[in-house]
Amino acid sequence: MTQAGTRAVADTGRSERLQRALFAIAGLTASNLPLPELLRAIHASVGDVMYAGNFAVVLYDEGRDGFRYLYKVDAGGGRSEGPSLEIPMRDREYTLVWHLLRSGRPLMGTTAQLREQVFGPLSIVGPHSTDWLGVPLLRDGRVTGAVIAHGYRDDVRYTDGDRELLEFVAHHILTAMEREQVKEELEQRVRARTHELQLEIVERHRAERLQAALFQIAQLATADISQDAFYRRVHAAVGGLINARNFYIALLSEDAESLEFAYFVDATEADAAARPLGAGLSELVLTEGDTLLSRAQIQALVRQGRLQPATTGSEPECWLGVPLRVDEKTIGLIVVQSYDPQVAYGPADQELLGFVASQVATSLQRRRAADSLQRAYAGLERRVEERTLELRKEIEERERIEFQLKHQVLHDALTGLPNRGFLRDRLERVLQLIARDPGRRCALMFLDLDRFKVINDSLGHLVGDEVLREFARRLQTCVRSPDTVARLSGDEFAILLEDIPVPSTPVKVAHRILAAMAQPFVLGATELVFSTSIGIAIGDARYRLSDELLRDADTAMYRAKNQGRGRFEMFDESLQQVAGDVLQLEVELRTALQLDQFEPHYQPILRLSDDAVVGYEALIRWNHPTRGVLGPGHFIKVAEDNGSMQAIDWRMFELACAGAARSLGDDTYLAINVSPRHFRRAEFAADVLDLLRRTGLPPRRLLLEITEGSLIEHPEPVRETLERLREHGIGAALDDFGTGYSSLSYLHTLPLRTLKVDRAFVAALGQQGNTASVVASVLALARTLGMNAIAEGIETQAQRDALVALGCEYGQGYLLGKPAPVGEWTQRTA
User: Do 113 and 254 lie in a common domain?
Assistant: First the structure.
């Protein structure tokens, strides 16, 4: 065997080992193996494809800026398959692992090559390796770890293929680690919930004992009794739950400078008088909230100078106070205290007193609201008189403003020019004059500032407004006094030349405008040059309505814009004909829906190994009564613009499914194309299932082809809809794969059955470039993910042979079969 043949056999063998390794790694990731066993198994699979005698998996903690080895096998530095202790990054500064974790980029090569790939110095730790390869573990752009392989043998040299394999391994290791983390978090939550339930059982018994008393206190808050009676009953209810022989309620004065005792019962004092705020126990509650103190703690606060010693009464053995709050504002406090060393309060008593305080605050708030309402009624008559006087002044001001509004309604606020309503009124009067004098002419010029959106997007709306004001000013310098310059909307303007002697007059005005626009716009330190597109329509006796003249001038303006911008165009009958053709097509499309002129054509999808038909793709055709059979390129754009495309789609879905159920073999499936607009509707999945019930097509025979644009625009609705349909057996295919935004993240998470290789890659097979490698990669990816791959657009035998050689199993295209009505395929299979 020749050297080339030997190399080919070796490459084939390595490809087979690589394929087995990829499947093995993907299967391991989906298994329930513990992480250490999983890493050992992945290491063994990697070793079947590349040299991995020295292999490590590193986990990086960004918060602590350190890393540890989850798995490490090093022939030169020792073997350690279990997790290591965390190593601070500062202790491994400028090592290969440090550079890999800091940069988040793969590193590969000899020591000399690695020095060129890193930024800054390179420090070598441990035995010197002849070749080194490391790839980062990345999640949402953040480095979470790395996978490393290196060798001490002169014959070990890693390749790009080894790097790609290690990146594949890194992705699956990260998935396994995240799964393990979720499992651990779930177990922790179960343990925590079990503990919570135990505490809830204890708390429930206590709550049952307190419920009756608390309910009584809650009722007192809304009872129609005096304030003194309310305080006495609250005191009695609290006394039934805790020791409340010594109990008082104190309130802040309106100026918040003193403390007033609304209710006071104490064994050592008969009463308590109002006093200025100082450094007493009550002030601690007002400033710090709930306060529970023993006698020793009170004495300690006195020694620290934080508390003044009591001047009256005895010193309590235990003191408990909680604040009264209304709308987050502290208005006072409620206190119980004990002079008996055997009686002490705890957290449960503190919680109870907090509830009582909330009820007292509720009562105070209700009573204060009633007082406020009474004061409001007292001042209502005075305010009515004041408001009557204000209304007289407002009427006078309104009359003044109405005159100003009449001007504003007909003028643009930004430029001060007349607006569309003003222009239409003026134009109607001019057309009435022309109707009475047919020899008279006017001209309407429709102007659009070219590329104005770029100004707003790049320089901002403030600069855009300045440009519009300057544009309006220049337009006014180009016309005569009786003519009207108006701003219609956005960057659209119009000029009405009321009485023109010859049609050349608006042309001269247009030249003046283009010359004025050629001068730079100076906006602060910025100098800009813009252009405008102008459409001109000559108004004569043919026009009856202002909107007709506006329409024709607008049509001419778009013609000028399409011809290259910075120019003007006169309206003529040919422009009207183009607009008329579009309108006619819209009418014909509506008629086509009513008369059912749309028909599905079916293109077969073949198994390339034996030419067996496995499915058909339904493609829309319009049986036009005069133009024959039309493909979608003749009418799709107009249908999308006028909003009829969705109705056409559903009619096509129904016809295609009914034809497939009735005439195509039960062993074939039907593929239909679904545009992104359908996934915006939450009812789409239910409508598809209802359609299958009506047409009799089994769900297993339906395949929905979606584009990558659907995934980008609506990723979550698309995923949810496809999952719901997959539960009923309906498959999904990703159309034109490889030309847009496809990524492993989409393919990994979406319930896809098939990838369709874009026809652009098929057409390029056999030409210069790496198209064959791209197609091979797509096919390998599809196999790895358990999907079918279909090559689109096969038109030559050479393309088919190349695809078969690459391992492509299915294909479609003109070489294999052109789209045709269902009857033709029925005759061929009969």
Answer: no
3-class secondary-structure state, position 765: coil
Which CATH number belongs to the domain containing residue 509 in this structure?
3.30.70.270
pLDDT of residue 201: 62
- Tell me which residue of 491, 493, 486, 490 sits closest to 411, measured CA to CA: 486
Q: Which two tokens stand for residue 712?
A: 């980008």
* Cα distances (Å, whole numbers) of residue 56 to 80, 131, 134, 135, 439: 9, 15, 9, 11, 93
Residues 250 and 345 in one domain: yes
Tokens of 203: 């708390």
Residues 96 and 136 in one domain: yes
- Report how far residue 249's alpha carbon sits from residue 363's, in angstroms, rounded to the nearest whole number: 13
| 369 and 512 belong to one structural domain | no
Q: Are residues 241 and 157 in the same domain?
A: no
Calculate what percentage of the chain has a pLDDT beyond 70. 89
Residue 195 lies in a domain: no
Q: Which amino acid is at 666?
A: D
Owning domain of residue 179: 13-185
Question: Mean per-residue pLDDT for 612-617?
Answer: 95
187 compared with 138, residue with greater pLDDT: 138
51 has a pLDDT exceeding 90? no
CATH code for the domain of 246: 3.30.450.40
SS3 467: helix
Closest CA to 671 of 592, 781, 788, 529: 788
Q: What are phi and psi of 56, to 5 degrees?
A: -150, 150
The answer to whether residue 407 is domain-embedded is: no
Edge-to-edge strands, sheet with 318-326: 275-276, 258-265, 246-252, 329-338, 318-326, 291-294
Give mean pLDDT, residues 199-218.
Answer: 64
> Does residue 14 have a pLDDT over 70?
no
User: Is 736 domain-assigned?
Assistant: yes
Compute how many other C-beta atoms are within 10 angstroms of the C-beta atom of residue 708: 19
Instruction: List residues bridging with 489 in a β-sheet.
Output: 492
Q: Among the listed ranges 73-82, 441-450, 716-725, which one has the minimum average pLDDT value?
A: 73-82
- Please give the pLDDT value at position 736: 74
Poorest-pLDDT segment among 119-128, 235-244, 682-691, 763-772: 763-772
Q: Which pair of tokens denotes residue 761? A: 């890659």
How many Å apart are CA 675 and CA 709, to the nearest integer?
Answer: 9
Task: Look at the chain and report how many structural domains it folds into.
Answer: 4
pLDDT band at 742 (very low <50, low <70, confident <90, very high): very low
Q: For the segment 392-436, what is each residue's pLDDT rounded down to a tens digit?
A: 888 888 877 777 777 777 888 898 899 998 999 999 999 999 889
The answer to the question of residue 1 being in a domain is no
Say how far apart CA 162 and CA 154 lie, in whole Å: 17
Count CB atoms within 10 A of the CB of residue 490: 13
CATH of the domain at 720: 3.20.20.450
